[in-house]
Write a structure and sequence with these properties.
- The protein has 495 residues and is α+β, with helices and mostly antiparallel strands.
- The protein folds into four domains: 209 residues, 2-Layer Sandwich (Heat Shock Protein 90); 119 residues, Ribosomal Protein S5, domain 2, CATH 3.30.230; 78 residues, no CATH class; 61 residues.
- 37% of the residues lie in helices and 19% in strands.
- It is built from 18 helices and 17 strands.
- Strands 5-4-3-6-2-1-7-8 form an eight-stranded mixed beta sheet. Strands 9, 10, 11, 12, 13 and 14 form a six-stranded mixed beta sheet that branches. Strands 15-16-17 form a three-stranded antiparallel beta sheet.
- A hairpin with a 6-residue loop joins strand 1 and strand 2.
- Helix 2 runs antiparallel to helix 4.
């Protein structure tokens, strides 16, 4: 008959192994902030002090605080069973986040909490745990607590999470190099928190007041990945999928084309977001962004879907259905949601890019006489110069047969040599960096219009409507439309 023994893990080995779960500074701090939000905090301050002999990173909130009994439970590894039902506003999951997130960046974790200025504190020191090979937690007395950095920043109620022995944060660097690494990570932290908690920062989460987060006194502003304040953003119909009796809310968006953004709007979103890589589903659990930029293999990322975003909301009652990981940075949709998402993606794609298919069908016919024409034939696309463009015909009429053949040969080479891959690469990554007529001002534009007019009407009557049709089929002249129309009126009066 089998006999039973108790076989606890080695505290030294397990504590060191738990440091390598893949947290970055940004995901680690976000995990701590989850606890602050659950504790009903409205203000969170993050201080990173690299001065002195004991560099410190502190996260302080004004939440409801903890009693000593509650603090000891919070410091315990695996303090809550993930199968246990949680409060609707609870952002926790495994009861490991405080410890695993902290130890991913430091070797010493101290937590101080206050309720009506009654303080309690506890400390994990991995060096001591490794030395004793026991889960030895230090309970701090009043004198110990008063020595903790930034203790004076805790209000009547609230909690401070203090990280020291910051070996992982510093990446074994020292001096100026160490500071450069930390400042770069703090910048990434700002961007991460502004996205992950953007709905809390904007005061959009039901039953939770607006949240403020500061890093070394700098207030973090919310970053909305759906550009909802921009009028050109398309908000498609919301849909609800039922999973185990719970609602999963799906809200698709189509972001505006870059030409619909102001210069400031474009610069802001281009600096903070890459349209191609950040397309996809944005998964929110209780208002907190968990994962984003993924179509879950339902469709490949590309130009057709690069402006598409789908917001998906679910509650913590569905954690097991979404297979949330410890870092809360991965979520996989249940089959019911995935199937509905597949159908939504099809609609979103067709809205993002409408391509008229058909054998030899001419595309982009909005311009009466475009310079370039685009054709499809059995799903294949080709671009060609418009051989019937009035300007080209006027030039050919002035040429000898030999000259016309030479020009035709040259234009054929130009068409065949169109650098499509290079254009695609540049345009898809930074569309506004492409400037075809950088030196074109109003004076030069009018000179070009005058030259085109002479070519078109050298041997026939001046036709203002025909000139406008040709000129405004060329995009570079659209900027100076009023000046060009005034110029054409002047030409007409001369006649």
């Amino acid at each position: 008959m089998a006999r039973e023994i108790t076989l606890p893990p080695s505290a030294s080995s397990l504590s060191e192994s738990m440091r390598d779960l893949g947290y970055s500074l940004a995901t680690a701090v976000a995990d701590i902030i989850d606890n602050s939000i659950t504790a009903e905090a409205t203000d969170i301050d993050i201080f990173c002090d690299l001065t002195g002999g004991n560099p410190t990173l502190v996260i302080i909130d004004n939440g409801i605080g903890m009693t000593e009994e509650q603090l000891l439970l919070a410091m315990r590894h695996g303090s809550v069973n993930p199968k246990q039902a949680r409060e609707p506003n609870d952002l926790g999951r495994f009861g490991l986040g405080l410890k695993t997130a902290s130890f991913s960046q430091c070797r010493n974790l101290t937590v101080i909490s206050s309720i009506n200025y009654e303080f309690c504190g506890a400390e994990w020191d991995l060096d001591y745990v490794s030395l004793k090979d026991e889960w030895c937690l230090s309970i701090l007395d009043d004198d110990d607590i008063q020595k903790v950095t930034y203790i004076d920043q805790i209000g009547r109620t609230g909690t401070a999470v203090v990280w020291t022995k910051l070996d992982r944060l510093f990446e074994d660097q020292h001096g100026i190099k160490r500071d450069e690494i930390v400042f770069e990570k703090l910048d990434l932290l700002d961007r991460h928190l502004s996205l992950v908690f953007h709905r809390f920062l904007a005061g959009e989460v039901k039953n939770h007041p607006k949240l403020s987060i500061r890093i070394n006194g700098h207030l973090i502003k919310p970053f909305d990945p759906f550009c909802r304040k921009i009028k050109a953003t398309q908000v498609l119909p919301e849909e609800i999928v039922r999973v185990n009796g719970q609602n999963v809310v799906i809200q698709p968006y189509i972001l505006p084309h870059h030409s619909k953004l102001t210069a400031n709007e474009y610069d802001f979103y281009e600096d903070r977001s890459n349209f191609v890589s950040n397309q996809g589903a944005y998964i929110y659990r209780n208002g907190r962004l968990m994962a984003w930029g993924d179509w879950f293999r339902l469709v490949s990322k590309g130009e057709a879907t690069k402006l598409a975003r789908v917001q998906i909301d679910f509650t913590n009652a569905l954690d097991e259905n979404w297979t949330i990981d410890i870092k809360k940075s991965r979520a996989r949709p249940p089959p019911e949601v995935k199937e509905r998402l597949r159908q939504i993606i099809s609609k979103v794609t067709s809205t993002s890019t409408r391509i008229h298919r058909g054998r030899g069908q001419k595309l982009y016919q909005d311009a009466v006489e475009p310079i370039w024409e685009r054709y499809t034939d059995k799903g294949k696309v080709r671009f060609d110069l418009n051989k019937s463009h009035p300007l080209l015909i006027s030039l050919e009429n002035k040429m000898t047969e030999s000259q016309s053949k030479c020009m035709g040969a040259y234009l054929a080479v130009v068409t065949a040599s169109l650098p499509i891959e290079m254009i695609y690469s540049d345009y898809s990554t930074a569309p506004r960096s492409i400037i075809q007529n950088e030196d074109l001002d109003e004076k030069i534009a009018l000179e070009k219009v005058s030259a085109i007019s002479e070519i078109l009407f050298e041997d026939k009557a001046f036709d203002p409507d025909a000139l406008k049709e040709v000129i405004f089929s060329i995009p570079m002249f659209q900027v100076y439309r009023n000046a060009i129309e005034h110029f054409i009126k002047g030409k007409l009066s001369e006649k």
